[in-house]
């Protein structure tokens, strides 16, 4: 049985960032990856995918973005090139194709990891496998007509890969809104079930909204000081796009152009889908967040006497005349359904009592109450950027520094 001082589970940007700092501390370690390094970016993104945050926020440790478009948005191929460069930069000790099946605490200290390629032990474990593991697909999907193609957002690639006919997209978060746009731009008939996801502007008063929020210190706010505290982890990401240089996603404009919008999908009766009558309320709530963010930028500009172009609140260009609660599948010629309602975390393999009643790991900045067990790469692990290229380096550095300090203290105690 092979023993390491530290085992990192997961070979995405979080796991590789951990390896970067572990190497700086000269800590013996290995990165175990179920598939291949940065697998998710290569296998779970559609062809037209691009970042929704500016390239300058790509700040992986020792490997910041250095291209010619800091305020642009990398496409899928460019992201993979960036990650390939990071992989080469870190040169992490890695075992690919190794799935961790169970992890338990050892009576003598440290952890035992049972994997698809044998057992390993470690004094410390950093779980960096992210928080998006199991695609969410509702049970009503089982009762849809068998001739309808059903996929999850992680399986979507392009409009041409779907059967001819209309497409129902369920969910209007970042993936749902962008996939609906991708289909709409390709001339497909799109039905969109709109949820409660908020939205934000791409550009406002002369700059990208992300630039303003960074200048305002928003991305430095920790979950411990955020007004919502840990509740912020339940927030849905704002929908916006970096496509074609970046722009707003306005579902009202799509509706004006022919996309069919409905409220939240509730049930299926025979071949008739039933929707909540909340489309108008959901659109208004998304617009309210949009205007509220812009208003906070207005306030900041005024307080700091910044010379910037005048801004105006968003004015809706379309509103539903009535709430439609039903959609008959045959009459609407829907041949495909894309489920864009997110993922659930799956840490069932971690047999260590560190989870709360919602199966979420209890931690402070990734440090759990169990000696030597850490988490990295979770959304809002500490800040907004924790699960992204912009903030994972800071989290990884903090976790590794804590690991190194506690490991040194333990060695000193054992020596005494």
From TrEMBL:
Q: Which UniProt keywords apply?
A: Oxidoreductase
Q: Keyword Translocase: yes or no?
A: no
- Record-level Gene Ontology MF annotations: flavin adenine dinucleotide binding; monooxygenase activity
Q: Is-annotated flag, keyword Oxidoreductase?
A: yes
Q: What is this protein called?
A: FAD-dependent oxidoreductase
Per its UniProt record, what InterPro entries does this chain match? Auxin_biosynth/cation_transpt (IPR050982), CHP04046_FMN-dependent (IPR024000), FAD/NAD-bd_sf (IPR036188)
What Pfam families does the entry give?
A: Pyr_redox_3
Tell me the domain of life: Bacteria
- Source organism of the structure: Pseudomonas reinekei
């Amino acid at each position: 049985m092979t023993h390491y001082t530290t085992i990192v589970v997961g070979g995405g940007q979080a796991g590789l960032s951990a390896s970067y700092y572990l190497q700086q501390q000269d800590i013996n370690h290995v990165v175990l990856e179920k598939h291949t390094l940065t697998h998710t970016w290569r296998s779970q993104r559609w062809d037209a995918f691009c970042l929704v945050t500016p390239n300058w926020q790509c700040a992986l440790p020792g490997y910041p973005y250095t291209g010619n478009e800091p305020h642009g948005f990398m496409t899928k191929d460019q992201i993979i090139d960036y990650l390939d460069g990071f992989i080469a930069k870190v040169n992490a000790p890695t075992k690919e194709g190794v799935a961790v099946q169970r992890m338990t605490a050892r009576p003598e200290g440290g952890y035992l990891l049972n994997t698809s390629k044998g057992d390993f032990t470690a004094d410390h474990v950093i779980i960096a496998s992210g928080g998006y593991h199991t695609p969410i697909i509702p049970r009503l999907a089982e009762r849809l007509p068998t001739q309808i193609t059903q996929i999850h957002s992680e399986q979507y690639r392009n409009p041409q890969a779907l059967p001819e006919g209309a497409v129902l997209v369920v969910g209007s978060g970042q993936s749902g809104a962008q996939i609906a746009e991708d289909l709409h731009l390709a001339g497909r008939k799109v039905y969109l079930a709109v949820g409660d996801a908020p939205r934000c502007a791409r550009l406002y008063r002369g700059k990208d909204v992300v630039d303003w929020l960074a200048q305002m210190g928003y991305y430095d706010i920790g979950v411990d000081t955020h007004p919502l505290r840990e509740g912020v982890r339940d927030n849905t990401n704002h929908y916006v796009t970096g496509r074609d240089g970046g722009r707003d996603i306005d579902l009202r404009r799509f509706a004006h152009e022919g996309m069919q919008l409905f409220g939240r999908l509730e049930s299926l009766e025979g071949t008739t889908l039933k929707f909540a009558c909340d489309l108008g309320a959901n659109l208004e709530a998304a617009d309210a967040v949009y205007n509220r963010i812009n208003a906070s930028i207005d306030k900041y500009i005024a307080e700091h006497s910044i010379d910037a172009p005048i801004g105006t609140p968003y004015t809706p260009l379309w509103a539903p005349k009535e709430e439609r609660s039903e959609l008959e599948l045959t009459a609407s010629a829907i041949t495909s359904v894309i489920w864009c309602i997110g993922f659930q975390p799956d840490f069932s393999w971690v047999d260590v009592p560190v989870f709360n009643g919602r199966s979420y790991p209890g931690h402070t900045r990734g440090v759990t109450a169990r000696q030597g067990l850490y988490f990295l790469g979770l959304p809002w692990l500490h800040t907004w950027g924790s699960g992204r290229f912009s903030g994972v380096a800071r989290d990884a550095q903090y976790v590794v520094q804590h690991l190194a300090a506690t490991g040194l203290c333990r060695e000193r105690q054992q020596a005494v």
